[in-house]
Amino acid sequence: MFVPRNPLGYKNLLTWKQANEIFELTEKFVKTLPKYHPETGQKMMDTADHMLRSARSGVRNIEEGFSRASTKEYIEFLGFSKGSLEELLGDFEYCRRNNLGDVSIADRAIFLLKGEGKMLHNQMEALEQKRVGSGNISSNEKIVRRQQNEERNEKEFWREAEKFLGKGN
Description:
Largest sheet: none
Number of strands: 0
Distance between the termini: 54 Å
CATH topology of the largest domain: de novo design (two linked rop proteins)
Oligomer: single chain
């Protein structure tokens, strides 16, 4: 039986709250960037724009995924969010290494982004386990998973056999 959920329930998720905090920090941070890179002379507006789009995407993909009809789609959107925030982390780390913008904001954002990546990963894994446990996967997916498990078991067998025979090390 389908049980409807609160369409705004994502606002209760720690991942969504933290992604919003990261977005707000990013908005503050880009205002502190110089107009031009001190060494290359390149316009920093492109970097600022990319950072804002990545931060926004991190939040919006959590929202959009939550409203999707299937858990599989939700997981995919969490993955998009994670990818966008990983790009943003790279931009913040670049700015931090090159002393561009407000260092204290960059440090806070980097700290939050690393935690957010881990939380999204854990959320995706938990949803995937729930999806598989409930049997909500297609026959094709079951076959692929079985093949992957068999391949993993075979590799493990040969690794152990090589150790036993003294060939691995």
